[in-house]
């Protein structure tokens, strides 16, 4: 391998490129899933009531608020909170362009989110037409609201062709569904979405007593509530969202196909390298066979070569992808970061790719007859 440095470099570059393709597809796919469930992880509750017809945040379905209040007296329930969710047309205050943005309506006296920045500004939201802007949204598309807010506070903006005042900032992050987020009071939310009814909420949030069993209370609520409502813990709630984007939409299979393409690209490159190596050294391999070395021994030599190529190709692919994740996150604000599980997955795929390609290339070696070669 070291004797032909150019061939070795080409092999390493090819495997690194294939690994980068797989890292890219898996990283963006995971960023999609993580960005969609980030709002869930910041909710202040233990159990969540959601319409059975809701399979993701973007198309969440409402249900009657009275159904939530029916469980107020259940033993172990500490408090209840409501959340309204909608997508509004945001008007960029700098260039007047329109973008989609999530709007969350909360009760300022019983906030649904566990965000320190929000807790410090709840009194501001008690006034009508006041909103908090997500500073981790896509600034180029939504406008540089944080900078504008330093010059003018409150900042007058438009959402759904309705004038509201930005009075503060918080951090949540953009997603594939929308470029940013707003948090408003429930009263302001109903003004932004006049077609919505105050009695129809999108999410019911249940906080249980500190020493109570969440599993037992969940079972009690399921027995008490009608079948059209789901009672989910946080893990079930986020898994439902991830499952939709993974299997219920075209996005998950599309990224999985990209991973498969990267795998095939690397396999073809490694096969070409190993097959050429076997062909070039076929007389040497045939001599070893004539001397009594078994096919198993020669296969082990090729397997070692494939293993070394996998390791040498993975390292630059890993480093390049890690740098790309940092750049991608700085541009899109999506939660892309190198994860141990993803790195292990790509490493295993790299080994399978190289060993598999080596196994195919070995077929020429196993069929070689020393008598025919000489």
Question: Care to describe what's here?
Answer:
The protein is α+β, with helices and mostly antiparallel strands and 374 residues long. It has 2 domains: 155 residues, no CATH class; 174 residues, no CATH class. 54% of the residues lie in helices and 18% in strands. The protein contains 14 helices and 11 strands. The strands form 2 sheets. Strands 3-4-8-5-7-6 form a 6-stranded mixed beta barrel. A two-stranded antiparallel sheet has the order 2-9. The model has no long low-confidence stretch (mean pLDDT 87).
Question: Can you tag this structure with a few keywords?
Answer:
11 strands, 2 domains, alpha+beta, 18% strand, 54% helix, 374 residues, two-stranded antiparallel ribbon, 14 helices, single chain
Please provide a brief summary of the model.
The protein has two domains: 5-35 and 250-373, no CATH class; 53-226, no CATH class. 54% of the residues lie in helices and 18% in strands.
Largest sheet geometry: 6 strands, mixed, barrel
Strand order of the largest sheet: 3-4-8-5-7-6
Percent range for helical residues? 40-55%
**Amount of beta strand:** 15-25%
Question: What is the structural class?
Answer: alpha+beta
Low-confidence residue ranges: none
Give the mean pLDDT.
Answer: 87
Order of helices and strands: HEEHEEHHEHHEEEHEEHEHHHHHH
Cα end-to-end separation: 25 Å
List the SSEs and their pairings.
Layout: H1 5-41, E1 47-51, E2 63-64, H2 65-69, E3 77-91, E4 98-106, H3 116-119, H4 122-125, E5 130-134, H5 139-142, H6 145-151, E6 155-159, E7 162-170, E8 181-185, H7 186-192, E9 200-201, E10 203-208, H8 214-224, E11 229-233, H9 234-248, H10 251-280, H11 282-290, H12 295-332, H13 340-366, H14 370-373
Helix pairs in contact: 1-9, 1-10, 1-12, 1-13, 10-13, 12-13
């Amino acid at each position: 391998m070291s004797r032909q440095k150019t061939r070795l470099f080409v092999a390493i570059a090819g495997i690194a490129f294939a690994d980068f393709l797989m890292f890219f597809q898996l990283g963006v796919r995971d960023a999609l899933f993580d960005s969609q469930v980030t709002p869930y992880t910041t909710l202040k509750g233990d159990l969540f009531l959601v319409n059975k017809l809701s399979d993701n945040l973007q198309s969440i379905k409402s249900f009657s608020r009275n159904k939530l209040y029916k469980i107020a007296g259940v033993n172990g329930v500490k408090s209840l909170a409501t959340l309204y969710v909608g997508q509004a047309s945001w008007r960029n205050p700098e260039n007047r362009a329109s973008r989609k943005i999530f709007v969350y309506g909360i009760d300022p006296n019983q906030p649904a989110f566990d965000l320190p920045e929000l807790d410090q500004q709840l009194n501001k939201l008690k006034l009508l037409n006041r909103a908090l802007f997500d500073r981790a949204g896509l600034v180029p598309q939504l406008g540089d609201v944080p900078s504008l807010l330093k010059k003018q506070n409150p900042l007058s903006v438009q959402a759904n062709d309705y004038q509201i005042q930005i009075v503060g900032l918080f951090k949540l992050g953009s997603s594939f569904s929308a470029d940013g987020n707003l948090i408003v009071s429930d009263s302001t939310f109903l003004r932004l979405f006049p077609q919505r009814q105050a009695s129809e909420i999108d999410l019911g949030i249940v906080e249980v007593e500190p020493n109570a069993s969440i599993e037992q209370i969940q079972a009690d609520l399921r027995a008490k509530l009608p079948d059209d409502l789901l009672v989910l813990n946080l893990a079930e709630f986020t898994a439902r969202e991830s499952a939709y984007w993974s299997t219920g939409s075209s996005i998950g299979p599309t990224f999985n196909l990209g991973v498969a393409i990267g795998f095939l690209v690397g396999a073809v490159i490694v096969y070409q390298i190993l097959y050429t190596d076997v062909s070039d050294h076929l007389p040497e391999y045939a001599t070893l066979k004539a001397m009594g070395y078994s096919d198993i021994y020669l296969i082990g030599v090729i397997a070692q070569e494939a293993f070394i190529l996998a390791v040498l190709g993975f390292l630059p692919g890993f480093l390049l992808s890690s740098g790309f994740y940092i750049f991608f996150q700085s541009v899109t604000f999506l939660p892309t970061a190198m994860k141990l599980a993803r790195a292990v997955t790509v490493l295993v795929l790299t080994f399978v790719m190289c060993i598999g390609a080596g196994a195919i290339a070995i077929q020429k070696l196993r069929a070689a007859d020393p008598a025919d070669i000489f």
